[in-house]
Amino acid sequence: MADKSERDERRRRLEAWRASDRVLWRASADQRVGERLAALAADAGGVYDLDEWTDIYGGGVVAEVERRAADLLGFPAAAFFPTGTMAQQVALRCWAGRTGNPTVALHPVSHPELHERGAFGAVSGLRTVHPTDEPRPATAQEVRDFDEPFGALMLELPLRDAGFVLPSWDELVEVVDAARERDAVVHFDGARLWECTTHFGRPLDEIAPLADSVYVSFYKSLDALSGAVLAGPEDLVDEARTWRHRYGGQVFQQYPAALSALLGLERELPRLPSYVSHAKVVAAALREGFLEAGVPWSRVHPEEPHTHQFQVWLPYGADALNDAALRQSEETGVTLFRRWFTDRCPPGVSVTEVTVASEGLEWTGEDVRRAVGAFVERVG
């Protein structure tokens, strides 16, 4: 549990970000409760008839989210889950029963391995293996050559902790084919699949059905309160609903999350390609800005972002960078960076994640370079 100093520091950051006139994006969690509720009440009528009855253990607006998601993703059925962690445990558990093999091949920096406290093994009886530990998606050859059988190949698209990186379309097709050659099913961890269409040059209903099933999140890119869906064949989704109940995911009422998901599909989803395009402008300007500011070394990864999110690496400690970022927000009303970390970084190097969303579209390359200069001045 966070102590008082940590809570105070978080409050200070939230106040600074909220008060900033210029940001590259605003996270929904940065808002106060009243603001979030007021916005949902004001906007939800545009995507759903608010005179309809509330959902009870599914149905109603929850069923509408499931229908919309299944159509968008090109699958016959979808089930709404309170979290992606639960959705993916259920999906891989169901596939293990069908294949007879509880081993899941995935990347060692994929979300279930880094951020779910070993849930696949501790809760679902699954075992994980890694076809590669390189900081990129596995190749078809690595999948073919892996030296033990697995029942499912799980691909995180994009691979967030490696820098929101994606394979090319041809590489993705080859990897899927390689898994099928080994009689394995393929599941896409598509928490951020929504923004992959620009990189792949394909619509969602062509990308997602490459896999046997897919999970997508509604809050990571679509600004919803929470929630996810698992999409796939009808028999898999029917079984997933049963396991959802057993896992405690049969929530009595979910209309706030479901309404916010519909708003995300209606409003944010069509705008994601513009965010991806402008992220390339921001990334290039960041590189130029660090050069102009005399930073001895920097890395923007990928150099040309695959989605609207990417990493920035700098040769300073996280404390110094976090202090500079926060002071820039408070002193200038400009938030360029949010939080810096040292996880999996070489000594003396820190990394941050940059997201470009609607507010970021207003930034020119010159705006970014100027903000970089002001940031570096504060690093000291």
TrEMBL record:
SUPFAM superfamilies per record: PLP-dependent transferases
GO CC, alphabetical: cytosol
Cofactor(s) needed by this chain: pyridoxal 5'-phosphate
Entry's transmembrane regions: none
Short name of any one Pfam family annotated for the protein: Beta_elim_lyase
Molecular function per GO: L-allo-threonine aldolase activity
GO biological process: glycine biosynthetic process; L-threonine catabolic process
Keywords linked to the UniProt accession: Pyridoxal phosphate
Domain (Aromatic amino acid beta-eliminating lyase/threonine aldolase) ranges: 61-287
Homology family: Belongs to the threonine aldolase family.
Name of the molecule in the record: Threonine aldolase
Organism: Streptomyces lunaelactis
